[in-house]
Amino acid sequence: MKISDIMTTNIKYLSNKDSLLSGRQLMKENQIRHIPIVDHETEDFIGILCQKLVLAEALKTIDKVGLDELEHVESQTKIGEVLPETTVVVTPDTSLLDAARTFLDDKNGCVPVVESRKIVGLITANDLVKLAIYFLEQNYDIKK
């Protein structure tokens, strides 16, 4: 089985020039914790904005200027300014076993699926848990 068999393909994404506030709002509106970020000109994948990073930046901002200024600072901060320099990615042909190992090794909540530098999908830990449940139900008589 390959990543392409279970990856989510209907994903929301933003560009590196979008504001941190727009990222936080997109997460809240769509109840998501990870947003792929693409280059604003080429639309090449460049990183993942995760909820943990948004929270860390919010706490730094609140510590510096206070809660009242949070939205203003977030609206002025470009996502590209806070993204980590590297992000582990997989391709649609990556095996599920290798992807699962990536989760364990890198302790990520998601892994972007990239092909020819374009984001084509996203695998979350939740997707792997669903897959585990499916396999367990197929192999065992589980009633719970």
Structure description:
The protein has 144 residues and is α+β, with helices and mostly antiparallel strands. It contains 5 helices and 5 strands; from the N terminus they run E-H-E-E-H-H-H-E-E-H. It has helices at 20-30, 51-65, 70-76, 96-106, 125-139, and strands at residues 14-15, 34-38, 45-50, 110-115, 118-124. It is globular. The chain starts with 13 loop residues before the first strand and ends in a 5-residue tail after the last helix.
How many β-strand runs? 5
Q: Order of helices and strands, N to C?
A: EHEEHHHEEH
Number of helices: 5
For the sheet with most strands, the description reads: 3 strands, mixed
Sheet with the most strands: spatial strand order:
1-2-3
Short descriptors:
single chain; alpha+beta; three-stranded mixed sheet
Please describe the topology of this protein.
Blueprint: E1 14-15, H1 20-30, E2 34-38, E3 45-50, H2 51-65, H3 70-76, H4 96-106, E4 110-115, E5 118-124, H5 125-139
Parallel strand pairs: 1-2
Antiparallel strand pairs: 2-3, 4-5
Could you provide a short overview of the structure?
With 144 residues, the protein is α+β, with helices and mostly antiparallel strands. Helices cover 41% and strands 18% of the residues.
